[in-house]
Write a structure and sequence with these properties.
Aminopeptidase, alpha+beta, about 240 residues, 6 helices, globular
């Protein structure tokens, strides 16, 4: 595979072509695991100005290796975590409303292609990049609903299980034999709960949003030359502070 990739962030409505590639890649991975009903894999999000996409792609944009999305709570559309767990535990709705007053959202839609499975390139790298974006978005917190495989990623970047919903934060989702854990990041600016190595990296990237850097795979002895394009140029001040 390529050892040189781009990690790029953009508002979903600004790049529909890449959004369609994202959806196709995400759905293919889910179907390979026998999963067909994940709320964050639908098409509607690509038309929402409250959704931001992070992609890991070839430099010529011919291929996506993976990515993730940030959905801002906007008071209009339920977050994927609300759609996924609300019937099982309605408390989630009030928690989202409470945190939305100071801007919150959800990290979701995380996937990576088979080509890069086990390297962290398509899944962990965009998770880290999502946290880097929170300062620009003005978020005061961030939710996520993660699989056992990605729970450790979220803990590395500073999230903790959100034990106030579900069974100490866990749900059987997206099907009865799979367990998902709701996690919550409460300090997106200081990142005090993140692993020190990851905290240093994320704070550095916030000062170097558009750069080229050599990154080491967290799981394999492989170096990847990453072209970062993480600057969002169309965010309004307090855009996502919502009063219900």
């Amino acid at each position: 595979m390529d050892t040189e990739v781009r990690i790029r962030a953009f508002r979903a409505v600004n790049d529909s072509e890449t959004c369609l590639k994202f959806i196709e890649g995400h759905q293919k991975v889910l179907e390979n695991h026998g999963i067909y009903n994940v709320t964050s894999s639908a098409y509607e999000w690509m038309h929402s100005p409250s959704v931001f996409v992070i992609v890991v792609e070839a430099l010529d944009k011919s291929k996506l290796f993976g990515g993730a999305r940030i959905h801002a709570a906007d008071g209009k559309t339920l977050l994927p975590i609300e759609k996924a767990t609300g019937e099982m535990d309605p408390r989630v709705y009030n928690y989202i409303k409470f945190y939305a007053e100071n801007a919150t959202g959800e990290l979701c839609g995380l996937w990576n292609s088979i080509e890069v499975a086990g390297l962290g390139i398509g899944s962990y790298f965009p998770s880290r990049a999502a946290i880097v974006l929170l300062e620009q978005l003005g978020f005061d917190s961030l939710f996520s609903l993660c699989s056992p495989a990605t729970l450790r990623f979220n803990q590395w970047i500073g999230s903790k299980p959100f034990v106030r919903i579900g069974n100490q934060g866990t749900f059987y989702y997206p099907k009865i034999d799979l367990l998902a854990t709701a996690v919550f990041l409460e300090d997106p600016y200081t990142l005090s709960n993140a692993h020190p190595r990851e905290r240093e990296k994320m704070l550095w990237l916030r000062q170097n949003l558009n750069c080229i850097n050599i990154e080491k795979s967290p799981f394999k002895n492989l170096n990847i030359r990453v072209h970062y394009e993480l600057e969002l140029d169309d965010i309004k001040e307090n855009e996502f502070k919502i009063k219900y």
